[in-house]
Each structure stands twice: as structure tokens, then as C-alpha cells.
What does this fold into?
Amino acid sequence: MLHTLLQLLALCPGAAPASAPHVTPSAASAASAPWVCGDDEPVRSPEAEVADLLARGRSMLELGRPADAEQLFLQAHTLGDGGLSTQLWILRAWMEQGRINDALDEIDRLAWSGSEGTELSYLYGMACHRRAMDHLRSGIPERTTGVSFQDAVEFLSQVTASGDARFEDAWVALAESAWYTQDLGLAARAGERAVELRPASAQAHYVLGRVHFSEYVVSAADAALEAAATAQLAAAAESFEHAARLALEAPPSDPSSSPPFRAEVRRQLGYARVYEKNLDLASTAFSVALSLEPSGLEFPRLLDWLSTPDAHTRFIKTLERANADWTEREGATEPGNALLLWWLGWARLQDGLFEPAERAFQEALDKQPTYVDAHFYIALARYQRKDFGAAVDALATLFDLDPPNLVARVEEDLRSRAPILDWLAGYCHREERWADAARLGQVLAVVEDHDWERWNNLGLFARFAGRELAESQDEEQRAEATKYFEIALGAYASARERAPHMAHLYNDAAVVLHYHLERDSEQARAWYNRAIELSRELIERGDAPEAELALARKALEDARKNLDALDDRR
It folds into this structure.
């Protein structure tokens, strides 16, 4: 009895010693019913094991784990007959790992060796679709991309027509490829079938939403198709809603759970809501999209959609929600939301929210110092709050970093912005902030080049800035004075070109040569004499406005004294 019991135990796989070698059952033994001991699983045939490995590998592909899938496919390929039925899945795993060229080379080798049929069409179709999508992301010329999508449509149409259940993912790729080739009828049929086969696929719902959206655009152009357009737009929004929900629920390894994909779905949903004229829902969708990809939307378009002629309230709230969510997830120091903050500052500034506007612009600058024009808008916010000294500080910073940028910002709205700079230049004059006055004077002279008074003011500001620096105890500051004297000399020359009859311009330019640069005394003498001559002529005529006569009398007096001083120096 004991001997018989030991024999029975020896037949039970679970009773074998831990050191006993594993023996793979032969095909012949697998054909007969295996012994079953207790609750142990039946011994599976190699065919069943291969099928299980392939099924698990395809699940890994769906979950976005192609490297793990490849290992399972390699096991299946080794355990099976080593044919195309297993090799094709290894090549699919390559595609999902970005090895498109390697996969295509191997597919071509298979074709040259005589392989054909649905498996090869599937491989070619999926590779062409994947290559085309990669081309779009990398900016490959459109002709190449279009050819790849056309090839994908041709191959995948054959695959889906076969009804082979192994290739269900071909429906999504076919729908997307047909959408890109603008075969909307085929794209819609393929997309609907993809959703039917894979109702939990966020990608399938997303692609179907894009197709319905395109159908809406076509129908909306024809008044006779208004009802169809309305239904197609609603279907697009519904598909995007499904895709957004499924993407949010997807496991982390699933590509549809990635922030870029989720952001794209929300963007498309937002566009659909805009066309539905449901701006509150559009705002919600866009805020989520921006919280995932803060630079992923065209802010001018968003501003136009979510604003009214009187206020940008909805636009501001959209950006504020997005910024709060992004910051909570990524942290306050991450720079990825700098562009969003810039636009938030701009909208707040337009709506008179000056302190919040400044904060947003400053945060944008802290995260992205290349956004130098934020200094200008900070200056505007400070000016509106009557913090004039701080406004000048911001403008001076921008001038030192990028003078053409400051000029461009003023020229964007010359009528309102030039007076602000003019007032602040006057403020600097009163506060004797001569270097800052000279900075602003240079900008005003450039943007209103025709105005001789702008050049005259620049000459005065630069002259006084140079004089202040020349009196400094700091050697470097004294050396800097010469730069300002040269600026003043050039400014007076430009002023004389525009108003050659103004006597004081000659006297003031001569003063720079005579007293500050201490050079070209003969040129200074000639300018003093010209100032005296022009002053006398104007005073003797007596027909000029009183302001000009006053300038002429002053120029005459100053030029005479300065000329005497120059002669005394000789």
C-alpha cells in the first residue's frame, strides 16, 4: 500500500522535490488528458502556452508597456514554431518602442522571403501609420507624411476587412489615417467600429471625436446641412468627454493617461464647446488643458473666445484655475507655466487689476527671464498705481536689457504710451534722475523721430546725466560721463536737422564741446556765433511766438557769455 501511494505521489507535479528538473511535455503526451493531482492546473500544451503569452503581450501593448510585451512575444516565438504568427508581435512591440525603421526593414525582409497575407498587411499598415504620426511630431515635410497615411489606409483597410480578431487595434489606426487623408466617411466608419470593439479605449473615442468635428466643419459650411452639423458637433463633444474620462481613469503606463494626451483631449473638447457657444464649459475644458500643458494653447485665440468687449473675466478665471492646478501638481518654482502667467498678467492689466497684473508678470519673469517685455507691462501697472519711481525702474531695466524691445512696446500703442513715457521723463527731470531721463528720452526721440523737441530734450537729459557722472568720486562713473556727452551731441545734431532755425540748439551743442568734451573749439565757436546770429534775426523780426522769442533771448545771452569764455580760454 505504501509503495502504491508513493507511486501516485510521484505522478503529481506538485509532489516533485524542489530540485527536480522541469520537463516540458511533448506534443504527444499533451494530446492525452493529463493527470490532475488535487487543485493543480492541468499541464498546458505548447500551443496553449504560446496563445497565453501572445494574449498577455498584447495586453501589455495596450497598457503602454511595449518592452515587457516584447519579452513575452519573444518567449512565444521561441516556444512556438518561430513563424510569422509570433514574429509579427515582436515587430509591433518594436514599433511602439520607436523602432519604426528596424521594423520596416524586417517587414520588407519577410515580404521578400515570400510572406504575405493579413499579417504582413497589418504590419505594413501599423508601421506606416506610426511613421506618419512620428513625422507630424518631428516636422517631416507634409508630402512624406501624406504618403505614409495613404499607405496605412490601403493596408489597414485590407486588415479590417478580414475580420481577424487579433488585429482590433487596426481600426483606430485606420480611422486616424483616413481622417488625415480627409476620407471622412471611411474615418467615421472605422472610428465607430473601433469604439464598438474597444469602448474603454480613450484613444478610440478621441479619434472618433476628431472625425465628427471635421464632419461638423464640412456640414456647417452648407446651410442645408444645419441639422446634421448640430448632431455632428454634439457627437464630437460627447466623444471627447468619453475620452477625457477614460484617460483620467487609465493606469499610469497607458499612453492615454499621459498629460500631453489628456491636455489634447481637453483642448479639442474646449473647441467643440466654443462652437456650441457654451463658453462656461469651454472655460472648464481649457483650464484643465492648460493645467496639464500650460503652453499648449494659442492664447490670443483663447482670449478672443473667452472675453467680452468690456472685460476678460472668463479668460482670467480660466487661467487662474489652470495656474492653481498646475502649481499644486508641479510646484511653485517650476518654470513651465511662465507663458500662462504672462498672459494672465496682460489680461489683468487690461481689466485694471494692476497689483495682480504686476504679480503675474513678475512671476513670469522669475520663471522665464527672457520674457523681458514683462518689465514694460510691470511699468504700466506701477504707473497706473502712481508708483512712478518704481515704474521708471522697470523701464530702465528693460532699456538696459533690450532697447529695441522697449521701443517696439511703445510703438504698439504710440498714442497712449508715448505720453506715459513723456510724463515719466518729466518726473525724472524733477527728481534729477538724469540717466533714467536720458533712457526715456532716447526712446521718445526714436518713436517720434520727426519732433525736434524730443531730440532737444534728449540732449538736455544726456548732458545733465553726463555732468552728474563727471562730478562723481567714482572713477568708473566719471569714465561713463563721456558716453552721455556724446549722446547729447548727437541729439542736438538731430534736433538742428529738424529745426535749423532754433538758435539755442547751436549754443547747447557748443556747450557740450566747449565745457564737457573739451575739444573742437573752433566748431564750438562757429556754433556760438550761429546762435547769436539766429537769435538776433528772430528778435529783430519780432513776429515769432513769445515762447520762441524767450528762447532766442536766452540763447543770445548764453551764447555771448560762452563765446567770451571760450575766447578767454585761448
Notes: The two ends are 140 Å apart (CA to CA).
